[in-house]
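Troubleshooting entry. The earlier prediction with fe (ii) ion gave an output that would not parse, so I re-checked the input for stray whitespace and re-submitted. Clean input:
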Amino acid sequence: MKYDFKPFSMHQVYENYTQEDFEVWKILFERQMQQLPSVASKEYLEGIKRVNFSASKIPNYDETNALLSHYTGWRIHVVPGLIANRPFFELMQAKNFCASTWLRSRSQLAYLEEPDMFHDIFGHVPLLSNQSVCHFLEELARIALRFVEDEEAVEYIARLYWYTVEFGLIHEDGALKIYGAGILSSSGESVYCLENTSVKRLPYHIKMIFDTPYIKDRFQAQYFVIDSYAMLFDSIPEIEAELEQRMALKHKKTFNFHDSEIGYHYASI
Ligand SMILES: [Fe+2]
């Protein structure tokens, strides 16, 4: 089921955040910032400073957008949660990052069924100050819109998004670091992804990612590792060519409907 979504119709009502919301944000922010400085990509950590996030304040989207505009021109766009693929990619191509405004409650600290603003904002927004990441997203959206009516193509794009923007790792200064928002906003997975000895950490490979399904509500069985953020943007021609090639094939693959919904996913915290 899809919401009747009217673009640009929703806003963050900052006054509605309660004392509990501020406390929850502080708990989550401090929990992550205790471990991320040694395991997160330095570009992400720099991004936290650029967008001025702190433990004491729930981000005000107008203020965040004003800061982001200096770096990449991207902005946070408030959505109700689930939106259809086409508006999701249209917004992305126009430099709008879809995010919710609600924050989990104290009782949800250990488990969350859908992404809240801690995932959407803390996890994603700092890297929206990075031009290579933003160019990659804009181009990925352009390609997605070419194939948006094709369930198979959208599934491939969703897998690529999943294994990069959501759960990507990066080689940085000779070490493995985290840049995927799904990991950065998860206290458990930000340790597991680097320390677990049985999980696979594979080189970034378009065809392999296209052929690797993902599971939403548990830690990943494999991660894909990039060498730089430019590598994402530089892979755009290969992504487009591979999609064109697969879409030209006669025998189409079919997927479960829920697998091809990229505008909505579960956050593993
Ligand atoms: Fe996300």
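This one parsed fine. Residues 14-248 form a domain with the Phenylalanine Hydroxylase fold (CATH 1.10.800.10).
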